[in-house]
Amino acid sequence: MWRRFFYDPQPDWQLVALVVVPIVLIAWLAARFVRRIAARAMQHMLHGTLTTSSPLVKGPLRLIGFATFVLIFSVFVFPAFELAELRPRFGLHLRGLSSWTFDSGLKVLLIAAMALAAIRIVGVGVKRFEHDVNFGTGLDALERAKRARTLGSVLTNITTIVVLLIAVLMILNEFKVNISPALTGAGIIGVALGFGAQSLVRDMIGGFFLILENQIRVGDVAAINGIGGLVEEINLRTTVLRDEEGTVHVIPNGGITTLANRSMNFSYYVVNLPLAHKENPDEAVEVLRAVAEELGKDAAFAPFMLEPMEVMGVDEFEQHTVRLKVRLKTAPQKQWFVGREFRRRIQKALAERGIEMWSPERTLTISSPREPGPSSSGPATPGRS
Q: CA-CA distances (angstroms) from residue 186 to 118, 182, 193, 229?
């Protein structure tokens, strides 16, 4: 039986065990290490959806570990037999292993090292970019940080996918695996994308320029194609909005025709005050200025009011009212918080000063006809003669 594996008819059992046991231990440690790396990668991809204790995760991990063990053991056991002078009949010989190690093996290590280095360099560059834009305080730093995080995540994901794909193809080529079918398949997929997935490509291109040109960021309040809401996600393909009712709207980036960002750098809250024609606009402006100054001294609202109230003047004459327009400059997304309180105080202040705002209500007084009094008499009755 041993002649099928070794040239020596009676090999030394102790020597065989002395060779096999360390190789088994090395293969087991390598399989354990690869399994841990695979588990971390799967946790990162699943984002907490499944744990490593789930059967759906444990099965692939066991398969990866077993495949790694078999590969390491089969690669190193026969060269180890040759080192022990047991002369195996088949398997990877020591000369072939050493030749591959100093030729293709070094290339594989170099490719893997360069791929990891490229990914790490991009990651460090993104972190440095985010740190630079986060330096300092104020609203501008906050706005720049939003854009940096959005662009950073997109650049990191794209770079990681492209670098890993190229590195895997180059490593497979060093293992003498024919990668021509893979390249041909990639070309076919590219042609298919060009003809059958034009909308997908358009969405991805639109999303890239949407982020690059800083048109919108995560956390902004925007109206896209007439749909308003808070921007929760910006991907290369879609933008996700959540409106005030909690409804989530997923909008393809290639289909965006109109975009209104309501929280870019600062915001305005505009008030069109309908005054009755008989009221003096100058007196109403004094009341509004007093209300705005009082609101600016309130600790709950002062940090969000960037400038004093701006009076834009009498904006329009209507049949029953005069429109007086004013506005407040506020921090992004705080215009409604400040504006609602501003309106509440305006209503109270105008009522205290007796300034009337126009209302569509009308009072109709109907007077009843007078009843005939005692002096009133009916038609005269002719007397008798």
A: 23, 6, 10, 39
